[in-house]
Design brief:
six-stranded parallel sheet; alpha/beta; binds zinc ion; Quinone Oxidoreductase, Chain A, domain 1; about 25% strand; 11 helices; binds NADP nicotinamide-adenine-dinucleotide phosphate
């Protein structure tokens, strides 16, 4: 079968012929891959900055944001049957008996770092025709979400962040959902803005460029406002947005993140999701930040995706987005490319949100 493979040692990316996987235990299912979303992580992998092939393999099959159709289910599989649509999780547990997180099925909190990730770290991904997976890593998706369910995986970043947010905010015995600021208008930021809107926040999205016509219209349609960092300082942004209760950071740019951190409101939570490259030190007024954090009971946390229930919440939220904003949700998928043109899908469309490799229809 065809697969998109990265050879880090040879610095090559190409479509290869890979052996078709077979079910080897009764708890597995075999899937035909339909859609695979492309994100910055894939772009880093095909630029050889990131990504590790499985032990003994020269190449890594990329792709971690997927939608597939079950074609065969082992005798002990009860959750799904042939014909069902499923989204697969990405991270697989480390092998260490001492890692309580992985042993509990919470490899998103792995203590050892020896987890694997399909399409990213020591485990082949989904940009291929067929995959085999254990039932526990599959999440059933309603047929009505066929066109957009490839967005489930990137949406789990927001789902886990929201869960962390509400866990922290159990410390205050009242409801307070006023002002959320999302940093970054990439797919992670836009999906986060949608989730925060559904959760009842007024949402402002603060991202670099003032020239995002398509993204602006997406944000208008969901009732969020766009503020451009190139034309508005963080002080201007804070004045427009109001007293900030939550920041959902989705830029991977520590300079803008720490600049906005100083504008956090009372009892607020700042969630980092971006993974910056190593750009070297930047000046930050740490006295101001520490003072604010203490005197305003602020919490800063980092969040990496995602537990199984975040996939369930993402599927539910996507259903709500599809009812409330059907056209807008579909417009998040900028273009679909056949597998042979996967390398074109990995190019950035200046104002697009998500390119998808449509492996099968
Ligand atoms: N935590 C997790 O589990 C997880 C999982 C996947 C990805 N991530 C991370 O999430 C982050 C966002 O992902 P994505 O796919 O949405 O990325 P993306 O498409 O690259 O979008 C990033 C956005 O941030 C904006 N931005 C970048 N630098 C900025 C700056 N200095 N000031 C203001 N805005 C800035 C960009 O603005 P313009 O478009 O205006 O230039 C862009 O809209 C990445 O760092 C990625 O590594 C985290
Ligand atoms: Zn991704
Ligand atoms: Zn572990």
């Amino acid at each position: 079968m065809r697969a998109v493979a990265v050879y880090p040692a040879k610095r090559e990316v190409r479509v290869v012929d890979h052996p078709e996987p077979k079910i080897t235990s009764g708890t597995q299912a075999r899937m035909r891959v339909l859609d695979v979303g492309v994100c910055g992580t894939d772009r880093d992998i095909v630029s050889f900055e990131y990504g590790t092939p499985p032990e003994g393999s020269e190449y890594l099959i990329i792709g971690h944001e997927s939608l597939s159709e079950v074609v065969e289910a082992g005798p002990q599989v009860s959750k799904v049957k042939p014909g069902d649509l499923v989204v697969m999780t990405v991270r697989r547990p480390c092998p260490h008996p001492s890692c309580v997180a992985c042993r509990e099925g919470r490899q998103d909190f792995c203590y050892t770092g020896d987890f694997t990730e399909r399409g990213i770290k020591q485990n082949h991904g989904y940009m291929t025709e067929f995959v085999v997976e254990e039932e526990r890593y599959l999440h059933l998706v309603p047929r009505g979400l066929r066109d957009v369910a490839v967005l489930v995986e990137p949406l789990t970043i927001a789902e886990k962040s929201l869960e962390q947010l509400w866990a922290v905010q159990r410390r205050v015995p009242w409801e307070h959902r006023r002002c959320a600021v999302v940093l970054g208008a990439g797919p992670v930021g836009i999906l986060g803005a949608m989730a925060l809107k559904i959760e009842g926040f007024e949402v402002s999205v603060y991202s670099r460029s003032p020239n995002h016509e398509e993204k602006n219209s997406i944000l208008n349609a969901i009732g969020a406002q766009y503020i451009a960092a190139e034309t508005h300082s963080s002080e201007d942004m804070a004045k427009i947005a109001g007293s900030i209760d939550v920041v959902y950071e989705a830029t991977g740019a520590s300079s803008v993140a720490f600049d906005v951190l100083k504008h956090l409101g009372p009892n607020a939570v700042f969630v980092f999701t971006g993974v910056p490259g190593r750009g070297g030190p930047i000046p930050v007024d740490t006295d101001e930040i520490m003072r604010n954090m203490v005197l305003n009971n602020q919490v800063v946390l980092g969040s990496v995706n995602a537990p199984p229930h975040a996939f369930q919440s993402a599927i539910q939220h996507l259903g709500i987005f599809a009812q409330r904003w059907p056209e807008t949700l579909r417009s998040l998928i900028t273009a679909r490319f056949p597998l042979e043109r996967a390398l074109d899908a990995l190019q950035i469309h200046p104002d697009g949100v998500k390119n998808v490799v449509a492996v099968a229809s």
